[in-house]
Design brief:
This protein is of the alpha+beta class. It folds into two domains: 11-92 and 260-296, no CATH class; 96-257, Gcn5-related N-acetyltransferase (GNAT) (Aminopeptidase). Helices cover 31% and strands 32% of the residues. It is built from nine helices and 14 strands. A twelve-stranded mixed β-sheet has the order 1-2-3-4-5-12-6-11-10-9-8-7, with helices on both faces. A two-stranded antiparallel ribbon has the order 13-14. Helix 3 (114-129) packs across helix 7 (219-234) and helix 4 (145-159) crosses helix 5 (166-173). The longest helix has 16 residues, at 114-129. The protein starts with 10 loop residues before the first strand and ends with a strand.
Amino acid sequence: MAVLSKEPQVIPGEKGWIETTPLEKYASIHELSLAGLMGFSNAWPDRHFFIQFDFNMHTPFQIDPKAYLSFHTQDADKAPALNGCCYSISEFNRWRLNIEAFSTFDEYLSSLIRWHRCNYSKSEKSFKKMDCEISIISGDWSEYVDAVYRLYTNVARKHGHKLYDRHYFEILAKREDSLLISAWHKGEMIGHFVLIEELPTLHSICCGLDYERSSESYSYSWLHYELVRFAIQAQKYHNIDVGLTADNSKKLIGFVPVLSRMDLYTNGVVTRGLLRVAHAVSRAKITPDAKVKFHLR
């Protein structure tokens, strides 16, 4: 498998004033030009003021010398990853399934209440009726980047926010700790989960869907069941995390909300002071649709 280069590669952003630099893991550093943000021409000299931040939702906190502002998400009952946390966004949920108790997938199914087992049967019937198939790739999945990005864009457009560009998936596809689970119909990908191993947890980073065919085939639900099956059979994971957004499908499959917190760190003196002032006068929450809301204390 390919090994990522640690040399930064700056990729122009879609709006002309955002630049993205892939990190060693799967986060990105984003440079936001203040000139571009205020509407001035982006043809200014290279040396202009900018805000730079590292967006990392799942992996352990890693300081990068270029990251002025870093986000680290973890369970709410754990202490900040490092001293120097300046601001915390709290009281939001991640969805998790603990699979330590199950040695087989059948044991997991037996643990579900009757209504939830009916959902499994309905999903299986619909998925197989359309002659759909599941694939799981634990190696380099670069050849599927276009399909993955296209389906991810469908979901991002529906929810009104797009975190990742195509280059992000090119980087992920080559990582040794990255996996891709996909649903297929007549040789075409109609749904996927992009996964990252962070033992003992398996994270679902994002999903993509062809809404018309995935809805008819119950691909979204069936992908979750196959994800659970894979994780149990692998016998090396304790938990499966499937992101922030809440939906009834996750509840039917057995995922439960886990109270989480996002800690903000900074290497900039001015930014650190501003964050501490913000912490003193305001609080922030992440809504079930993964949007941040602020309010005064």
